[in-house]
């Protein structure tokens, strides 16, 4: 990271409060990036977080190895009421920019799957890198500080941030307090409350990238499949993915279901293709002519055996019948149902298990280039607190870096 020194004037009055150019609230992915960029451009930055440990969500991300970006990240990988909003920030700070930063800190990493980049050693490498970048920018970082509120006497005045460590004043405040998932590691709805306090619209939040659950009685036949995984095609609304599905005691999880959960709305069905990329009808009809096999064992060549058995029983299909004795129409019907298995979840595992939240500060309230609230000059929102939600696979961190960078360049 580099830039020009443009520290704003901090010498205005307001006795008692300590003055900075910018106060960033939330020392997670987006807040660390923003503070480092602004600090390195010469701004006097205070970075506050109520947690005592730095960047817990980065630490636990990617199973402890932080899937820190996706080389393919682009606007099409994000959900928002305004899908174009993220375009500007994402194009000005790209996966290549973050990869260059990671390389400059000599952090070893690897590509795991479909452009997803993970640390070889662990997430701590990314936290240490961002912390070092903040130090290089002279950022005053304080952890364990409870923020009681933010006030501004009149438009044009500095903001005063009230905390249990005293009051701090700055012309600019950046809200980087993340989304509601995993309250036990410090997630709060602080950002939404501040937005509402200043009269900004908030798109209601709901859990995303989250396992889906089913009515216990309806799920009973499948509950015994917990732990079984297979690749499927999955669709709901405008979302469609080919990823791994995992059966759980209460429903479905795995990358396929986490991805589709962002598109699912209560009451809607999801559609699962258990045999993606396979012409199941054509293959079953060919097998019928060529072999003496039965339906169940034939399916078990394509699907995990227990899943094939349970699915056929549930579909009331004759697993023990010889293919040669099955009418073509029956085989076509079984194949059709295998490729579009329709299920209606009764809910999700909620904020406790969600990786991110859909919704947040309405993007119509913000400038896409600076992340500043149009109606409240000086107040910026970045990262997950904004109504921009990425797919699973490193996209959410890329949004945190890009939006943090956009605000950091503007303050
Ligand atoms: P983030 O949550 O990182 O930071 C917010 C900060 O604000 C926290 O430090 C919090 O303590 C602080 N804060 C909150 N309220 C406050 C208050 N009132 N006062 C002061 N401070 C306050 N994404 C990805 O791209 N790749 C991955 O591998 C994963 N893996 C993953 C695993 C799990 C289990 C989860 C829950 C999430 C992921 N994610 C992910 C998503 C990713 O972690 C998330 O999108 C980013 O951390 C969001 O960055 P932010 O900076 O916006 O919030």
UniProtKB/TrEMBL annotation:
The keyword Flavoprotein applies. It comes from the Bacteria. It is an enzyme of class 1 (oxidoreductase). Its EC number is 1.14.13.-. Keywords: FAD, Flavoprotein. SUPFAM superfamilies: FAD/NAD(P)-binding domain, HI0933 insert domain-like. InterPro entries: BaiN-like, BaiN-like_dom_sf, FAD/NAD-bd_sf, RsdA/BaiN/AoA(So)-like_dom, RsdA/BaiN/AoA(So)_Rossmann. The keyword Flavoprotein applies. Signal peptide: none annotated. Its cofactor is FAD. Gene3D superfamilies: FAD/NAD(P)-binding domain, HI0933 insert domain-like, Translation factors. NCBIfam families: aminoacetone oxidase family FAD-binding enzyme. This is NAD(P)/FAD-dependent oxidoreductase. It comes from Derxia gummosa DSM 723.
């Amino acid at each position: 990271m580099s830039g020009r020194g443009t520290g704003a004037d901090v010498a205005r009055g307001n006795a008692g409060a300590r003055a900075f150019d910018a106060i960033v609230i939330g020392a997670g992915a987006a807040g660390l990036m923003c503070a480092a960029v602004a600090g390195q451009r010469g701004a006097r930055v205070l970075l506050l977080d109520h947690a005592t440990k730095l960047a817990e969500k980065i630490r636990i991300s990617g199973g402890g190895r932080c899937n820190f970006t996706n080389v393919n990240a682009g606007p099409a990988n994000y959900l928002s009421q305004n899908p174009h909003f993220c375009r500007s920030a994402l194009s000005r700070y790209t996966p290549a920019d973050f990869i260059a930063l990671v390389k400059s800190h000599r952090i070893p990493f690897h590509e795991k799957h479909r452009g997803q980049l993970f640390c070889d050693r662990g997430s701590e490498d990314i936290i240490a890198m961002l912390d070092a970048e903040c130090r290089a920018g002279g950022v005053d970082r304080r952890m364990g500080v409870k923020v009681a509120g933010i006030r501004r006497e009149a438009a044009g005045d500095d903001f005063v941030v009230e905390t249990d460590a005293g009051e701090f004043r700055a012309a600019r405040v950046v809200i980087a307090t993340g989304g509601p998932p995993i309250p036990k590691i410090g997630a709060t709805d602080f950002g939404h409350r501040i937005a509402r306090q200043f009269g900004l619209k908030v798109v209601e939040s709901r859990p995303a990238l989250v396992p889906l659950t089913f009515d216990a009685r309806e799920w009973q036949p499948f509950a015994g499949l917990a732990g079984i995984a297979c690749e499927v095609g999955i669709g709901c609304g405008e979302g469609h993915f080919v990823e791994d599905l995992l059966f759980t005691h209460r429903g479905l999880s795995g990358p396929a279901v986490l991805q589709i959960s962002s598109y699912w709305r209560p009451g809607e069905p999801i559609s699962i293709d258990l045999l993606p990329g396979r012409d199941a009808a054509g293959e079953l009809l060919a097998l019928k002519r060529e072999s003496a096999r039965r339906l169940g064992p034939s399916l078990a060549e394509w699907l995990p055996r227990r899943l094939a058995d349970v699915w056929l029983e549930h579909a009331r299909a004759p697993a023990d019948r010889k293919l040669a004795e099955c009418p073509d129409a029956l085989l076509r019907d079984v194949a059709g149902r295998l490729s579009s298995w329709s299920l209606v979840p009764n809910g999700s595992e909620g904020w406790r298990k969600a990786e991110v939240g859909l919704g947040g500060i309405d993007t119509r309230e913000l400038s896409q280039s600076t992340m500043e609230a149009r109606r409240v000059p000086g107040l910026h929102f970045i990262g997950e607190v904004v109504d921009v939600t990425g797919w699973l696979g490193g996209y959410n961190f890329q949004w945190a870096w890009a939006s943090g960078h956009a605000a950091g360049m503007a303050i």
